[in-house]
Amino acid sequence: MTDSSTSAVPAAAKIIPRSEHNVSRANISNAALKVLYRLKDGGYQAFLVGGGVRDLLLGLRPKDFDIATDARPEEVRALFSNSRLIGRRFRLAHVRFGREIIEVATFRGAGDGESTDGEHVIHESGRILKDNAWGSIEEDARRRDFTANALYYNVSDFSIWDFAGGVADISDGWLRLIGDPEQRYREDPVRMLRAARLSAKLGLRIHPDSAAPIASLAELIDGVPSARLFDEFLKMFQTGYARESCRKLLELGLFEHMFPEPARLVVRDDQVAYRELIDAALTNTDERVAQERSVTPMFLFAVLLWGPVQQRMAALLEDESMSPAQALALAAAQASDHQFARIALPRRFSLPMREVLQLQPRFLDRRPRRVRALLQHKRFRAAYDLMLLLVQVGQVEQEVADFWTAAQEGEDAPPPAEEETRPRRRRRRVGRRPRSTPPAA
Ligand code: ATP
Ligand code: MG
Q1: I need a surface site. Which of 26, 79, 322, 390 has the fewest CB within 10 A?
Q2: CATH fourth-level superfamily of 1-172
Q3: Domain residues of the chain, as ranges?
Q4: Model pTM greater than 0.70?
Q5: Which residues contact 160 (CB under 8 A, 6 or more apart)?
Q6: Residues whose beta carbon lies within 6 Å of some atom of ligand 1
């Protein structure tokens, strides 16, 4: 336990008193405040940290509130009956209040100081494999990624402790890596993706020193576990800034390391419709998030793989022994395998995604029994949404969309696309309303 009065402030921190910043408790969730106060009353240091402080300074509504403390995970666990410990690579406590989860992390060090225990393991490539060495708040700040993320809001006097010049960088519009950029990217290549994502989301420019090494280090993304890339995909593409994030990924030469086959196609002169399709889907996804409507990664993957699937299918059809349906199924399977080796899309999304691609030719079949069967198919809704986008980019006739929009009026509304990532609210069936709303993404 440490005294959290200002006398204990590390020399390196610049302290911004409450009167000189705009972070107000009114904009911090009650759950986060409860955790902060209980830690403080328990005799620990307690700070709101990271994206929460940064977003409040920028006048944005934080997605979540993370807390940093000098209490060890077991001590946090003992303080909150509604908490549990999670993570191996990065052990921390989750404190749950209804649907809201507050992450409480113990200050981490680099694993080389005297004050540390726990474990810190580095791969020979420089990549951090385990990051559980506890440290001081100063060390904790130094191992965060961007200066704007190393800001600590102190619940005992509402000041902000700024260890890396993050407040000045935010007000100057810079997203800047802490420390030596090349070393920081080598430690954790996902920081390159985070640079793209956060600059897109926050409207901050990546500082030239932080941007420079990305071109030569981008290939380190290939060594990141595919499950972690899926987590990063969700943050990048399902939280309201997909279009801008994608633009940044392309600009920084990172897109090709997340989506190798789509990346080879999008640059081709004969792929205008594919580019437009991706753009329309990203725009649409962002609009849906802004309206707090549900989105699913299944849909964006279907869109991204649409180009490679068309290519592979055409090649497979040159072998005349194969029917178009067989070629499509095989093309979808091959393109999926290729993509999911890079970004691990869980099966609950990947199987429906393939169905959505494989259902596309069935929109051209107007035989009444086939029409009824498709309308009742559990992927109809998502497949229909993809078909509408294909109409929008001139790959399918408008008349096809009109037919299927009208066809639904005579039917029970098909079930909504499943496996949504947010919000998790239960949805009511929508009765017989004609479906002319924009596509789900
Ligand atoms: P968002 O608004 O999307 O949540 P965020 O910056 O809060 O953005 P989180 O993934 O929630 O992102 O991470 C919380 C904090 O943890 C960050 O602000 C940063 O200080 C630190 N952090 C996260 N990922 C890394 C990383 N790869 N390397 C160093 N620090 C990181
Ligand atoms: Mg966050």
Answers
A1: 26
A2: Beta Polymerase, domain 2 (3.30.460.10)
A3: 1-172
A4: yes
A5: 15, 16, 21, 23, 53, 57, 151, 152, 153, 154, 167
A6: 50-51, 63-64, 66, 144-145, 149, 188, 190-191, 194, 235
